Amino acid sequence: MLLAVRGSSERSAAWVRALPDVVAALNGEVTRLIGKKPAQAVKAARVMQKPSAPAGRVVGLEEPLLPSSVLVHYPYAPGELEGGRRRATDPVWSLTIHTIRNVVRQSGQPTLCYLNEGPARGFVREELLIVPHGTELPPDRVLRRTR
Fold it and tell me: Tell me, what DSSP letter sits at residue 143?
C-alpha cells in the first residue's frame, strides 16, 4: 500500500524534467578516455581512445612480432562453425592451422594479426594459440566428423 501512496510516477517525472540538465552537464565535461567533451567527440570523424587500464605488456611499435612462419589456431566466434549460437560441445579453437598473412601496427595500439585462409577479422597475440613445430594433427576423417 505504501507504494501506491508514494507511487514511482512522482520520482520518474522529476527525473524526466531533470534529464536535459544532466545530459548537458555530462556533454560539457572532458572525458578521461578520449580527452574531449562528448559533444565534440560526436562531431569528430574519428576519435582515438586511451586504454582504460595500462597494458600489462609492451604494445604498439615496440611490441615483439610473431614471425609469419609460426603456426596458429584462432578462437571461434560464437556460432562461427554452424552459423547459430555456440553450443557447449563446439570446439573453442579452429580445427585448421594458419600462418600469419599480415600484421598491422599502430603507436599505442595492440598489434593485429590477420591470418592466411582464416576469418577476415584481426587477432591480438593473446588470442592466438601457437602450434609447436612437429605437432601431428589428427587425420582428416576425424577433423571432418567434428565440423
Answer: H
**Residues 127 and 75 sit within 8 Å (Cβ to Cβ):** yes
What is the DSSP track for 22-76? Answer: HHHHHHTSPPTTTSS-HHHHHHSS------SS--SS--GGGSPPPPTT-EEE-BP
Residue type, 137: L
- Pair 47, 36: CB distance under 8 Å: yes
pLDDT digits (tens, 9 = 90+) for 94-119: 888 899 999 998 887 888 999 999 89
Cα angle for residues 126, 133, 114 (degrees, 5° grid): 40
Count of CB atoms situated within 10 Å of the CB of 35: 13
pTM of the model: 0.58
C-alpha cell at 51: 586504454
